[in-house]
Amino acid sequence: MFVGALMYNFFISQFLYPDVTGLYIASALVGLGAAVIWTAQGTFLTQNSTKHTMSRNSGIFWAMMQFSLIWGNIFVFFAFSSKDLIDKDTRTLVYGTLTAVGLLGNFLMMFFRKPLQDENVDSEERKLPFVKGIVDSFALLKTRDMTLLSVAFIYTGLELSFFGTAIGFTKKFGEDSAKFVPISGLLIGIGEVLCG
């Protein structure tokens, strides 16, 4: 998880001194980091939960993650308010703060508890061949529960990727339409926390 989170922080930090090549490289690395961090996060939750606490722990994780949309967008709303163009100082303030908060999160990961080992399970039994793991993943995708979850995953991905920027560039909202981007993110975050 630590390495995946560092890649997220590297991506955010690229906006401090943006250049096209750096942003493309950081975008590719954040994609790799996302694969690592989400897989590791799922494993971490599984290893530190029982069948009785899994739903609770997943819900707590989801709410904490979505709260970042709320706090981050409140911060951006005030930082970008009454600005037609985002100047270097504002960009440095926003992305410097986001990078610092991300690095603080990385630091706090070092204090995560170690997963509890189940003495009843032989460590050799836990190892799964790579190809079998891939095949089992696709088999899981065909299950009813995962198919239903996939709809939510696709919606969330599209919503977070395109909706805010579509609002920011819609000139029908007026000259300062960019102010609606953090408001949109804030409302999405509230919806994700309350309904997720």
UniProtKB/TrEMBL annotation:
The keyword Protein transport does not apply. Pfam families: UNC-93 (PF05978). It is found in: Membrane. GO terms for cellular component: membrane. Keywords: Glycoprotein, Membrane, Transmembrane, Transmembrane helix. The chain crosses the membrane at residues 21-40, 60-80, 92-112, 148-169. The keyword Transport does not apply. It is a multi-pass membrane protein. Belongs to the unc-93 family. This is UNC93-like protein MFSD11. It comes from Tropilaelaps mercedesae.
